[in-house]
Fold these 2 entries.
Entry 1:
Amino acid sequence: MTERKTILGRCPFGGLARPAAPAPEEAPACPGRRSLLVGFGLAGAAGLAPGAARAANAEEERRAAPDADGTRDRQPFYGRHQAGIVTSQPAAALVAAFDVLADDRAELAELMRRLTARTAALMAGEMPAPTDAKLPPPDSGLLGPGGMSDNLSMTLAFGASLFDGRFGLAAHRPKRLAAMAAFPNDALDHDCCHGDLLVQFNANTAETNIHALRALLKDFPDGLALRWKQDGFLPPHTIKTQGRDTARNLLGFKDGTANLDARDEALMDRIVWVDDRAGEPAWTAGGTYHVVRVIRTLVERWDRTPLREQETIIGRDKAEGAPLGLAQERDLPDYGSDPEGRRVPLDAHIRRANPRDAASADSVILRRAYNYSNGLTKAGQLDMGLLFSSFQSDLDRGFIAVQTRLNGEPLEEYIKPVGGGYFFALPGVAGPHDYFAKALLETTA
Amino acid sequence: MTTAARLTVSLAALCAAGALGAARAADTAPVGVTISDKGCEPANVAVVPGKSVFKIKNASKRAVEWEILKGVDVVEERENIIPGFTQTITATLDAGDYQMTCGLLSNPKGVLKVAASQPAAADAKPAAVSPMDLVGPLAEYKVYVTREIDALVTETRAFTAAVKAGKLADAQALYAPTRQHYERIEPIAELFNDLDGSMDSREDDFEKKAEDPGFTGFHRIEKGLFGDKSTAGLAPVADKLMADTEDLHRRVSGLAITPKSMVGGAADLIEEVASKKISGEEDRYSRTDLFDFQANVDGAQKIVALLDPLVQKRDPALVARVKGNFAKVDAVLAKYRNGQGFESYDKLAPEDRNRLKGPVTALAEDLSTLRGTLGID
């Protein structure tokens, strides 16, 4: 929590000057209300009993406030972990993967320093100072002249390709990080896969994510080349229920009912965060493996599938979301008493994904999925589906084990993973003296 | 015509539909009964178990009460229906035989039969076909599949031999007709996921596209023959395709085709057309998509033809629509016939592509109901 004080004390944007247009010393101060809110978050978290503290508690309390329009919602930037992983999901997502254009380690470190400052400013809703009107404006203006934080989080992750020969980092690659290999049902499009750097933008509105993406493109033209991107959305009214209601995916089924409780810190320490016990390079502590999958769902065909078949493919009833044979969405299926799959078929999606047996006990993942809708396929069918993300401390035991169990599931007839990749979400930035991946870039040979 | 007479006529029409009279689903239309001085009209009524609504009109000269009796027990009653008035009564009834009182105690009681849905009950859930009904169609379909897979083996042998002998023109000519045997029985062939992947996947299925080492089968050879215009390096791919085809033949020969895969296969074939063939993505080098298009449609039409008598009994309108749309598709495709085969996909006029889209999508919707119509889960 101490890191947040720096936000209170000084607007970090002063250190963000672009060489071409240095910001004046009297860069706009953080608005008073924002300071107040951060202070409230600090006090709120401090007052909680140890163990009861919940991630992003202040954010959630604020979002629940009836008068909040959300534009001043703000995610913490400094901390042991990045925001956008265990913090609650806002309605809009954008995932963008970049090729890093730096030539050597020093240029990469400089890029990461500047990215750190820019990310902190964007998440705080800071705007660059206006410039001469004869010049192009320094900001897209998409969020208006005042800017807004709008609950924006930007979560940075490195892909395996960053650890090739360019920067001398090969020996420091997170142990399990590799380019995502295709699973049997995948039809990966290389143009929508992988990347040196992944940025996951989450915010209350799509405009805020796009604003942040455009800011990066404008400010890092020679540092980052956009490789692919995918937008996603969730229903805002469902999000407002704070987890009481579960969003539906575009197949019409509730998706995420059995997801882990991201507010359970002990659970997140066990399942999500890499620590020094994992045998990983020391710099990775506090980070996590981030899997992104762009999974097209063949919705026309799905809509022409009998309801009962849809339900047996998923393993839940469509209306309530309850596991088949049970009444309530959150009822836990007892597969021990259903060894032949009479209630929930053995190859149903939920049963394959999480068999709830001893062998699969440690292969659980924290999911963070959004729906997406693009254009049409060449055949004139809808190109839409699930922008899936998962976070786990062990890629092999986590996503890869889960997806391997799912290989050959009947749902495959209706889904086609086409893009994504494996990444390592960096540890959080501790404070203004720190920057993204500093421990990797400075302390390793 | 008086109200009573009209009621009588409409009920008589309903009675004619089934041996026991009018069987109506609960929440569709109420069952009308008219009480005259002599009794109930109709005197025999049938409903399905669950909630039923009765509209009782008193056409007699005195106030009556109307009761549903099970033996001596009164299950439901409405007292004091004034002459000329109609009362609505809702009753939830289990299956069984009941009686209705019909005015004067001296009048004969009406018969109310509550029984599970019968074929005559148009609004009720369609009855599942019996396994016996499907024995014939399944056997005939197996014959069709066997004939196609036999032809696939024979023609693939000639095709791969031409590829290996470096006879480019021969191999190009054999490519599309050979594939048609596969495409006609695609839902059956696709039951074997591994072979479908190695025989019929497209380069889009692979991350490195056409250069991917996993890209084999018909479309890899297609790229060589029509894209590179050469048979160089294709011999191992041809050998693998031949071996896979023989493997597929073995596996299909030993396969017991289930009602689900046969009946569902008609929809699967049209989904293939709707999602891939109509866009010209399937045969991007040879542009022979219309061969595959026709073969998928042939395979679906075969299944529909074999099931026709069973579907006709349950939903004649469905059969009529499906046949009409198949005819439309066939008519557009016929414009592009060229001897034994088809013109290039590139010649398909945009307006004809749209003329195909409507009926194909309607077929996909209708054929997706085929399993449910026949009660096959």
Note: Residues 131-164 of chain B form the longest helix (34 residues).
Entry 2:
Amino acid sequence: MQVTRTRLKLENITKHYPGIIANDSVNMSVLPGEIHALLGENGAGKSTLVKFIYGVHGADSGRMFWEDKEIQISNPSEARKTGIGMVFQHFSLFDALTVEENIAIGISQELATGGLSDKIIQVSNQYGLPLDPSRYVYTLSVGERQRIEVVRCLLQNPRLLIMDEPTSVLTPQEVEELFKTLRRLSDEGISILYISHKLQEIKDLCHKATIMRNGKVVSECNPDDETTRSMAEMMMGKDFISPERRENKSFGSTKLSLRNINRVSHHQHGVDLANIDLDIKTGEVVGIAGIAGNGQTELLEVLSGEVPVGDEGIILLGDREVTNLNTNDRRKVGMAFVPEERLGHGAVPNMSLWENTVLSAAYSMDLVIRGFVSKVSSIAFCKHVIKKFNVHTPGPNTFASALSGGNLQKFIFGREILQNPKVLIVLQPTWGVDAGSAARIRQSLIDLTENEAAVLVISQDLEELLEISDRIAVIHEGKLSPAYPVNEITIEEIGLLMGGVKKSEFSIRGTDEN
Amino acid sequence: MLEWVLPAILTIITASTPLVFAAVGEVLVEKSGVLNLGIEGMMVVGAIAAFAVGVTFESATLAIISGAVAGAFLAFIFGLLTLNLLANQVATGLALTIFGLGLSSLIGHSYVGKTFPGLPKLEITLLTDIPFLGPIIFGQDILVYLSILSVFGVSWFLYRTRWGLIVRAIGENHDAAYSIGYSVKFVRMIVILIGGALAGLGGSYLSLAYTPFWVENMTAGRGWIALALVVFASWKPGRALLGAYLFGGITIIQMHAQGFDVQIPAQVMSSLPYLATIFVLVLISRDSSRTLLNAPACLGKNFQPSS
């Protein structure tokens, strides 16, 4: 008699946090060799669930079975001993340590002693994950960093591998490589629990999907039988509206020009900007693709006026030079910015939402009168933002830190967009934001261009850029490629540019803009 | 010439030893991401504890142990406040220094005027009698040897052991270390205690050997010098040893220069170690790339596990 044993089975897992139920009687099971997707919007309870499985925190009630035996896992090292490995969304790596040290620290002591570097090389070759054990992590690309995490897990011969949004920072080529590795692991009987927002990836890769909403499992499906749209609707519990763009847009005069921007990064292990030139016209969305850590942060800082432009660099807003204006003065002449880091950069965590609106909209919305903050108009504007952008929050007096990532991002976008900027510059607009909110944010960017604005989107999410951009440029090691019209460049070509291959080394169908 | 070089070197060793202890302890603590500005307080409490016990029980061993325990006790308060109650590390460290100075004055009040016979020196026939090198290498007291040993011990621990790797990892990225499954609080507490014990030993050396009697506020800013030494050494124990001897050397040379009637005001000479500290700090911060790799990224940040 053939018995199909489950690798992992969860029964009625419930976890409360003050005020919310993160997991509400969750049942699911994962078979050996299965690539099982865990899908859901932000705050649906996916991360809470996998952290429970990995022993980072406990649950209030419920039972967990490992290969048909009930088990309790109270910390990650027990999970690793059981055979559960996890690759975190925000890598648990240490920049100033070597690859070998990073791996040694995440595995058992017995494994870490005696020829670890040989074992690393062996495993990394076996699964097509090349790594040099002696290199320091800060010198590695995001893709290479992820390999460290994967190799660290594989060295312990896991039978269940949990991956939390593994592809959000990878180039298309790196994603393809990762999928090859994952399929191979699945063939060897290793189960994979795969968390992602990217529905197409789940269709390509996964055998089964469990969909969560508000802490509950709402359905299970076979991704092959579904469309990305139908899965998005199951996830959101309502109809999914994808962003619409006008076809045959006509653009006006040049709105924002960057000339010869050179800037030495002041960040630890940062990237220097080199000779960046770019023009954006009125009504245009220009996307800048690139792997994280290739100068995106530095570029935003120069544009927003947080760091001075290098010696010869010039930034023009229309005909007006704004090179030497500080952030506030740039806001006054019609520029707006949404940085990558929401809490701490885009918003002050321990300030209320209305206070946060004053910080960026003080002058453009007349929230400060004769040097005094007008609380009445600030709260009115804040309420307007909350209503217009569908921010889920009790009200303007809520602290920014109390909002979930996606909600806060909607709030920050609303705050900037409703000021009617002439130029909006955003970095990673939908990082970690669920499909529904992401679509609304993207739509609001497209809508903004209809009001005579120019939009610059710096993002690692290629699908997003292809969806909303009119032209796309690629940043690599601080250098910016020319911007190509979106219908004249393929995703593969962008991927090659992101990997540092020069355009002369492959043929592009279109011609250079410049 | 030689007749004053040997005593000079011997006094340099005694002037440097307290700095070695304190600096090496702080290197260890800062490598775990904790900035303890209370070195001065831990040293001075170590000094009075060692002196009081030494005078009362007439035992050097007991005195040394009490000095270390007292330093660790003060560090424990610091750990409790910063790790468990998430108090700001800078403010807590400063408070610890003020508290330590006050507490030591209070305890030390009845010990003013008493003397301690000093620590016994190592005597090995033949070896200690070797001219010049003999007294330097084989004629020191136990704390001097212990200070050198602590440098090698901390260095070996940090760079050769698994637990040292964990300490460095926690200092580099405490969130990641926590998600891998290490107890950030526990590791930091242990390290803070060891750092406190080392600072306490440094203080003990002051009151037991350097000037074997008790004076109020006898650390005289050595804790701050040790703190500067950590940056000077770019968080490397070996370099901290070097730095400690350099600063100890400057202190002694300026004293000798005064003796030789060098026409520089005594105040300028006494301020030399502090000026040198500032100078070195400026030099180091000018070239950021070299030091950043050694500087723990989480230095001074409190850890609060997120859900």
Note: The radius of gyration of chain B is 19 Å.
